[in-house]
Design a protein that fits this description.
Elements: H1 2-24, H2 30-46, H3 51-75, H4 85-149
Helix pairs in contact: 1-2, 1-3, 2-4, 3-4
Length: 156
């Protein structure tokens, strides 16, 4: 768990550094903008956060990158079309979140089915063991009686 926190914190610092780069280099701000969004997507792809932190981080990234682009559009440093990237990136991220959550749910269902099948298999094996034991006893007794009567040769 501490390693995951360190990775999250490292990403947070990376995102802040890129926000600062967006402020410092206005004409190049789309590069750190994409660094933030792509790194967020990669980070989330490796570990799916719970819904609260996911929405919180998404809101912060949208606000941070969107406000900087909006300010640049307002001052004339960027064209207004650049603002469309924030909702597009958000929509792509949300689509990825939805698929990651669906995948996690499918994995949980598959694990539950596998666990259930393993229990069924154990039950079948136990049943077969019990049945074979219960059948062996009367067969052994019958063979013993047959041997005593001389109707069956020993070892056959």
């Amino acid at each position: 768990m501490p390693r995951r926190r360190a990775i999250d914190l490292g990403w947070g610092l990376f995102a802040v550094a890129n926000l600062l780069a967006m402020i410092h280099w206005e004409s190049w701000e789309t590069i750190p903008f994409h660094f933030i969004w792509v790194s967020l997507t990669l980070l989330y792809g490796f570990r799916v956060w719970s819904l609260g932190p996911t929405l919180g981080v998404l809101a912060l990234v949208c606000a941070g990158t969107g406000l900087l682009i909006l300010d640049d559009v307002h001052t004339g440093a960027q064209v207004s079309g650049e603002l469309t990237e924030v909702p597009l990136m958000s929509a792509m991220f949300l689509a990825m979140v939805w698929h990651a959550r669906r995948r996690q749910q499918a994995i949980r269902v598959a694990e539950a089915v596998a666990e259930n099948r393993a229990r069924l298999l154990e039950g079948q094996e136990e049943f077969l063991h019990d049945v074979s034991h219960e059948l062996r006893t009367p067969v052994t007794i019958a063979r013993g009686h047959l041997e005593l009567l001389g109707l069956e040769r020993p070892g056959s």
